[in-house]
Amino acid sequence: MKITDSDSVAIRYVIERQLEAFQKDDTAGAFAFASPEIQVQFRNPENFIQMVRLSYPAVYRPRSVFFEKITTIHGKITQLVLLLGPDGVPVRALYLMEKQPDSTWKINGCVLIPVEAEIN
C-alpha cells in the first residue's frame, strides 16, 4: 500500500489524539481511535484503558514523544514512535495502523520494543 503525505499526516494525528486522550484519562476518546477489531476485543473503553495503563505505561503517560518513519512490517503499515516512559526509559512503539472503509485511519495494535532492538 502506498502511503501518501495526507496518510502520514492522518496517521500522526490519530496517534497524537489518542496519546492526548490517555493524558486526560478520556477513556471514550482514546477508545475511539482504536480499530473495530481492538474495540471488539476489549468490549468497552474502561477495559481498554485499564490494559493500556497496566501494560503500556510509556504509551499511557509518556514524558516525551518523537515520531519516526512510517514503514511496512509484515505487510502492515506501521508508524514508529520513540517514547520516553514515565520511568525515564526510552522505548520504540510500533503502531500498527489500519485504513478504514471511510478512508480514516485507526490504531490496530501497538508493540513496544527496546530502543536497542533492530527493526527488520
- CATH topology term: Nuclear Transport Factor 2, Chain: A
Strand count, sense and closure of the main sheet?
4 strands, antiparallel
Counted up, domains total: 1
Q: Number of helix segments? A: 5
Low-confidence stretches: none
Gyration radius, to the nearest Å?
Answer: 14 Å
Helix/strand class = alpha+beta
Order of helices and strands: HHHHHEEEE
What is the CATH architecture annotation?
Roll
The whole-number mean of residue pLDDT values reads: 95
Calculate the terminal CA-CA distance, rounded to whole Å: 18 Å
The percent range for helix content is 25-40%
Q: How would the global form be characterised?
A: globular
What order do the strands of the largest sheet run in, or round the barrel if closed? 1-2-3-4
For this structure, what is the CATH class?
A: Alpha Beta
> Could you give the count of β-strands?
4
Strand content: 25-35%
In short:
The chain has a single domain (5-114), classed as Nuclear Transport Factor 2, Chain: A. The protein has five helices and four strands; from the N terminus they run αααααββββ.
